[in-house]
Write a sequence for this structure.
């Protein structure tokens, strides 16, 4: 039976082998992680009174983009 | 129904919910309960882990069988590119509180874009599947059968392992163990201690 470390190693080796299955799964997982971090950080910034413009500047997008994506949650203005 | 459940067996159901959230699943199935049992700190999880039924193995086989849901945090896939999800999770939770990362799963937007509150993050309650409800009913019966006043981890484990259908038997088969054997082992161990 594989231990957790071994299975991780196996995956890492898969990535080195250019296996699309592993590479694509990593992309999807990373995107999911980013999405969640963005939700946490944007909500926190809004709670602290940051404007959409200030948040957008840090994220490197326009304020419309940030507002469209996050405006429906708390802190709508 | 939950009143007579012990604190740790109740916690297993809560952990199953957190696991479902992390994987972007919008249901709590018996497979999520199996993971939470394996991940718990108890005699039961020790026995499970001794038979290779570790939370990592359960997650790996689960994802192989079912696949991640929308917005899943896939621990092994992140590890493949050098990101340790546990470390990330620990740092985020230190700032934003327990379960912050797992409970803020993004939801698919409705079309046309809805302004209703329910398109926010999945922070609320995720429903139990029919089989999970059945599993909790069987847990109560397992406790009644041995005239136990409280409903504990062992009752939950024997109820879960006794269910012949659903995803857990397939996960266990992939790991190379039998739910029936594990169940018998838990029961015989309990007989020895009582």
């Amino acid at each position: 039976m594989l231990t957790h470390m071994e299975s991780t190693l196996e995956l890492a080796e898969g990535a080195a082998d250019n296996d699309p299955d592993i590479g694509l799964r990593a992309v999807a997982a990373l995107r999911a992680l980013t999405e969640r971090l963005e939700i946490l950080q944007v909500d926190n910034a809004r709670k602290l009174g940051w404007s959409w413009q200030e948040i957008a500047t840090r994220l490197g997008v326009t304020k419309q983009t940030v507002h469209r994506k996050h405006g429906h949650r708390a802190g709508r203005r | 129904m939950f009143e007579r459940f012990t604190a740790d067996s109740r916690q297993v159901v809560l952990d199953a919910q957190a696991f479902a959230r992390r994987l972007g699943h919008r249901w709590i199935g018996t497979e999520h309960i199996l993971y939470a049992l394996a991940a718990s700190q108890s005699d039961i999880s020790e026995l499970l882990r001794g038979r290779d039924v570790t939370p990592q193995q359960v997650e790996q086989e689960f994802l192989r069988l079912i696949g991640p849901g929308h917005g899943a945090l896939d621990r092994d896939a992140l590890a493949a590119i050098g990101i340790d999800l546990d470390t990330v999770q620990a740092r985020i939770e230190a700032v934003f509180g327990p379960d912050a990362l797992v409970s803020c799963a993004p939801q698919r937007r409705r079309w046309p874009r809805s302004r209703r509150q329910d398109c926010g993050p999945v922070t609320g309650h995720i429903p139990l599947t029919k089989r999970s409800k059945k599993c909790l009913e069987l847990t109560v019966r397992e406790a009644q059968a041995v005239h136990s006043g409280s409903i504990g981890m062992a009752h939950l484990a024997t109820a879960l392992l006794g269910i012949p259908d659903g995803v857990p038997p397939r996960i266990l088969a992939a790991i190379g163990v039998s739910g029936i054997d594990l169940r018998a082992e838990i029961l015989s161990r309990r007989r020895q201690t009582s």
Chain A touches chain B through 29 residues (CB under 8 Å). Chain A has one domain: 4-70. Helices of chain A lie at 4-16, 20-47, 52-59, 63-70.
